[in-house]
């Protein structure tokens, strides 16, 4: 039998092969990431693996897909469910983006440490908000929904195999092979001609809407490797003549601990596609929607830590408005140096980031009796803190990545109120709870503290 994590690992690897064939620049990105990671490992030794073993980091990818309807999202959830991936987090990119990005998103990923360590593959999954009148008037909405209702992204056979894998938590080898073939093929770029007039109608509103609702299938939008030094990677890509977006999204380059997530991408490339003209003739054209992204991951922040992160973003915005000629990265670095704790210990002491704890070898202990607070246990060498890696995404960075790859702004009618899409509505559509990332990290931390309290017999008096 092939277990769910084996399906997940095989799926990630096969998608990566497929995407490398489809978008050769992705293979360059993967190679440069690998070179950078090897160099960082050589320079920093064990420290380089503080946020994940090199084998995990090298295999680590996230994908991004976009679907059109709640039904399609529900089907995608079953396919990811087959591979032990659950919906985590809710991102409203309509609000986070200044250009027209009419989607809300979640990410499907494994949720326990064991499963994450086996293979952390995650897929950022966006749903088109066709009911939002700021983007789609009544007529366009009904044409769009009719078009979407008429297509099939995932075959009944694929869905049946997915349901079986989820129910039995594994598939026999032959079925597993079949499931993987069908699942990978479902995300391949289709050769079917694109209806040019319809695509352009949607593109006037939003290039993202056209990519989702202008074609009869879905495709992987990008596949993102993880790198240990994203600034170095950025320079090496530019040296190779690859056009990158202007910035690295997320926290700035600074000397303190890596937190959350930093991302950048190479620009969406023109890919040959066949187009059908209104008179029925088919011609060759090109569409520019798929790009190559890369990311560096840091420590997961608590709600308080995240609030601080968001506050610093706003401070940087204000500084940038006042000093438009100073690079944003410089302003951000100085804001961070002033306001963000510069060590893991301070992040932990102020309750800003998540850690797990394990017992240190006896010879490191500097006191005879274990003290009853975690800070003292760590301080006196009884316990070692291990940062929990951020496994999720950032709405503003996601919007930044979307946006910097769009060549047209699109349109948004601000006279209308946006329609409500929230985590509860997504949960209802897919019939599974959209999980709260803070709760997941918090549970990991609490469990490890309870284990330590038990091992040191501190139950009851632990602070
Ligand atoms: C998703 C963009 C967001 C990320 O890593 O934040 C994203 C998309 O382009 O479909 O991938
Ligand atoms: Ni991405």
Commentary on this structure:
- The chain has 463 residues and is of the alpha+beta class.
- The protein folds into two domains: 2-300 and 392-432, Roll (2,3-Dihydroxybiphenyl 1,2-Dioxygenase, domain 1); 305-385 and 448-455, no CATH class.
- 47% of the residues lie in helices and 17% in strands.
- It has 19 helices and twelve strands.
- It has helices spanning 4-22, 24-44, 54-59, 70-82, 93-96, 113-118, 138-149, 156-168, 173-186, 196-205, 207-213, 230-239, 303-322, 328-339, 344-349, 374-379, 395-404, 423-430, 437-455; strands at 2-3, 61-67, 86-92, 103-109, 122-128, 170-171, 194-195, 222-225, 261-276, 282-297, 355-359, 383-387.
- The strands form four sheets. The protein has a five-stranded mixed beta sheet with strand order 3-4-5-2-8. It has a three-stranded mixed beta sheet with strand order 7-9-10, with helices on both faces.
- A hairpin with a 5-residue loop joins strand 9 (261-276) and strand 10.
- It is globular and about 85 Å long.
What is the structural class? alpha+beta
Total DSSP E strands: 12
Q: Mind telling me the CATH class of the largest domain? A: Alpha Beta
Name the average pLDDT.
94
Name the bound molecules.
Answer: 2-oxoadipic acid, nickel (II) ion
Shape: globular
Radius of gyration, rounded? 23 Å
Beta content comes to 15-25%
Query: Which architecture of the largest domain would the CATH scheme give at its second level?
Result: Roll
Low-confidence stretches: none
């Amino acid at each position: 039998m092939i277990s769910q994590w084996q399906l997940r690992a095989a799926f990630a690897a096969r998608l990566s092969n497929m995407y490398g064939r489809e978008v050769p620049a992705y293979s360059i990105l993967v190679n440069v990431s690998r070179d950078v990671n090897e160099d960082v490992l050589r320079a920093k030794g064990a420290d380089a693996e503080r946020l994940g073993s090199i084998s995990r980091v090298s295999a680590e990818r996230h994908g991004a897909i976009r679907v059109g309807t709640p039904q399609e999202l529900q089907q995608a959830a079953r396919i990811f469910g087959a591979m032990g991936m659950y919906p985590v987090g809710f991102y409203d990119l309509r609000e986070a983006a200044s250009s027209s990005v009419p989607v809300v998103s979640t990410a499907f990923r494994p949720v326990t440490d064991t499963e994450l360590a086996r293979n952390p593959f995650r897929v950022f999954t966006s749903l088109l908000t066709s009911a939002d009148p700021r983007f789609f008037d009544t007529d366009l909405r009904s044409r769009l929904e009719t078009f979407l209702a008429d297509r099939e992204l995932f075959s009944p056979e694929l869905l049946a195999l997915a349901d079986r894998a989820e129910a039995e938590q594994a598939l026999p080898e032959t079925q597993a092979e079949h499931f993987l073939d069908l699942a990978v093929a479902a995300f391949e770029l289709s050769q079917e001609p694109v209806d040019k007039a319809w695509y352009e109608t949607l593109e006037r509103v939003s290039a993202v809407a056209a990519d989702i609702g202008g074609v009869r299938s879905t495709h992987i939008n990008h596949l993102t490797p993880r790198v240990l030094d994203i600034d170095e990677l950025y320079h090496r890509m530019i040296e190779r003549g690859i056009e990158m977006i202007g910035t690295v999204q997320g926290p700035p380059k600074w000397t303190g601990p890596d937190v959350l997530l930093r991302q950048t991408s190479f620009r969406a490339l023109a890919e040959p596609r066949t187009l059908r003209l209104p008179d029925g003739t088919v011609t060759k054209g090109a569409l520019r929607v798929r790009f190559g992204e890369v990311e560096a991951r840091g420590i997961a922040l608590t709600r308080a830590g995240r609030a601080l992160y968001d506050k610093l973003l706003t401070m940087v915005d204000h500084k940038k408005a006042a000093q438009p000629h100073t690079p944003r990265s410089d302003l951000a670095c100085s804001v961070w140096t002033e306001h963000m704790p510069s060590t893991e210990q301070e992040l932990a002491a102020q309750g800003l980031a998540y850690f797990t704890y394990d017992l240190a070898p006896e010879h490191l202990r500097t006191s005879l009796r274990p003290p009853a607070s975690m800070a003292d246990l760590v301080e006196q060498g009884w316990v070692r803190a291990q940062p929990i890696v951020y496994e999720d995404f950032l709405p503003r960075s996601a919007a930044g990545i979307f946006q910097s790859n769009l060549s047209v702004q699109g349109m948004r009618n601000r006279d209308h109120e946006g329609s409500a899409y929230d985590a509860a509505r997504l949960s209802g559509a897919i019939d599974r709870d959209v999980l709260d990332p803070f709760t997941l990290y918090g549970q990991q931390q609490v469990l490890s503290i309870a284990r330590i309290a038990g091992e040191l017999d501190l139950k009851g008096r632990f602070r």
